[in-house]
Structure formats: structure tokens, C-alpha cells
Amino acid sequence: MGNYLNGAEYTQTGKVWYGMGFAGGAGFANLDLLYAGLERLPESGQEIYAKGFDIQLGGGVPATMINLSRLGVPAKLLTFTGEDFISEFVKNAFDGYGVETVNLYEGKGRPVTVSSALICGGDRSFVSYQDEIEITPLHVEKVYRQLRGAKVVDMQAGFLDAYQKLSAEGTIHVFDTGWEEDLALDKYRNYLEIADYYVPNQKEALKITGESTVENAARQLGRYFKAVIIKLDKDGCLLKDDSGTKVIPPLKGVRAVDATGAGDAFMSGFLYGLYYDYPVEQCIRFGNVMGGTCVQGIGCLTQYVEEAELLRLADTLQV
User: CB-side exposure of 40: number of CA atoms within 13 Å?
Assistant: First the structure.
């Protein structure tokens, strides 16, 4: 576990950073029950057996912070865990990954989201459950206090006031909405106006802008961002900025088996680049490496690279 002093010093495995801050984020914890190798999905009333099974931490901010820690970046996670057996499993897992965690939950329910992921033909279906959790002003204030001093923050919906204060203090914010049926610019306008970067995939970019092409979606998002970023899945990542539009190529030689957590892995690589002041194009390369590595294993955290390999692979992704 790391040691923070005024949000600006961290010690881990003999390394010490001074004055660089840390990477942080607040979000719900997830536990995935992974059923792999299914030849088909069961119909109503049927039972079928998977060829593989595992229980792992799921995606979201926790996965991003864990991967950042693996890359040597001081990472701080604010999340919701209770006293139930599922929460205890998750807390033990966090301890095993060495990520500093702060619990935002004070109730008696089951705040961890549990998902059964059915992996069939390279795609996934989910059944999930979580006790409803209300994010209160006290939660938001705690998020602000705990993330003060962060250099970069992974933004999630629900903590707008905290992000507004942190942005005024110079923290870099990266926003990722994920897919929603009612995803729209008006719904997240306040978040987009705070964020320094937004990293949707192409499906999310089309949905939030209401456009039918990635190029038109990029133009719409250009109203908010100097650098527009749209993940193109196996085709890499689009970057539109003052110099024009280009596609940063994906990691080569990827044999994808499960896309679970790929977006969170991309976020970790992107935040790594921002933390060390790389140009945005290089940050995207780091993101492509982390995302492309993630999809080669079952679950969000099985396949990853450490810092030296990240730097080597990113140099191979030249436009």
C-alpha cells in the first residue's frame, strides 16, 4: 500500500515521487462471475455448462486504478464496499493489488455490483445486481477532499461538484460515460464542460451526439474538446485536433477472447500518459496497448503489461 502526504507523495517498492500528485477516481466496485467457452446461450428453462469459470474483480474505475498501479503510477480508489461477504471478497482483492482504497459506503446493504458474464462466440451477455445506492452531498464532499492533490482523475457521473472544485485547482479530468440507452449531450453537458478529455468508443460517440458517422460525431464533440478521441475497437483510435484527423493504430497481433474491461484498460494507459506529460497522441498509444492486451484474456484484469513493456509496445504504434 502507498503512503500519501498532502496528496503529493507516494512510496511504493522503493520508488518515491515528490510533487507529482497521484491518479485517482471514484466509482462503484464490481464483481464478475465469468462463464467462458459457451457454444450458445441457454433458452428459457434450460441449463448449459460452461467450459471455463472464474470469479474476478470487474471493470470501472477500480480496474483502471489497478492497472495504473501495475504501471507504477500512484493510484487512489474511492469506492463503495459493505460488510457482506461479497464486499469482503472485493476488499481482499483490492489489498492484493496494492491500490489505496477509501470506502464511501456507510450503509448495511450490498453496494458491490455483481455480474454474471456469459461469454459466447467472442461476445458477452450480462445479468447484474446492485442494491440501489444514493450518492449524497457528503459522498461528493469526501470525494473532493480525498482527490485533492491528484494530477489526473477518472471522471464518473455522480460527483460533479467535486470535479468542478478539482478542475478549478488544476486537476486534469478524463471522462468516460459508457453505454446508456439515454446517452445524450444534454444529459452530460456539465461533465463535458469540465472534462479535459472524453474517451467514448464509436458506438457511444454516435449515441451521445445523435450522429450516424464517426466523422460527424467527432465534429460535434469538437465543440467541447480541442482533442477529440473516439475508440474504434479493433481498428485503433481516432484523434481529431488542430493538426487534422488521424487514426492511431491498434496493438498488433491481438487474439481477442473477451472484450470485458478493454475500455477501462485503455483509460489506464491514457491516464498514464497524462500523468507523465506525454502528448495526447502518445497517451492514446499507451491506451491502445493496454486495451489490446486486456482483450487477450478472460475478464478485466487477467492480461496486462507493466511499464517497460508498455513503453516498448507503444513505440510500435506509429501512424
Answer: 5
How is the chain split among helix, strand and coil, in percent rounded to 5?
35, 25, 40
| pLDDT on residue 258 | 80
**Buried b vs exposed e over 306-319: b needs ≥16 C-beta within 10 Å?**
eeeebbebbeebee
Residue 319 is predicted with a pLDDT of 60
Percent of the residues in the chain that have a pLDDT greater than 90, as a whole number: 79
**Alpha-carbon gap, residue 6 to 171, rounded angstroms:** 15
Closest CA to 242 of 269, 222, 260: 222
d(CA 283, CA 292): 14
Q: Tell me what pLDDT residue 64 has.
A: 97
75-79 and 100-103 as β-strands: parallel, antiparallel, unpaired?
parallel
Instruction: Check if the beta carbon of residue 23 is closer than 8 Å to that of residue 153.
Output: yes
The pTM of this model reads: 0.90
* Contact (Cβ atoms closer than 8 angstroms) between residue 296 and residue 255: yes
Distance, in Å, from the CA atom of 246 to the CA atom of 251, rounded to the nearest integer, reads: 16
- What is the predicted pLDDT for the residue at 56? 92
Q: Are the C-beta atoms of residues 174 and 280 closer than 8 Å to each other? A: no
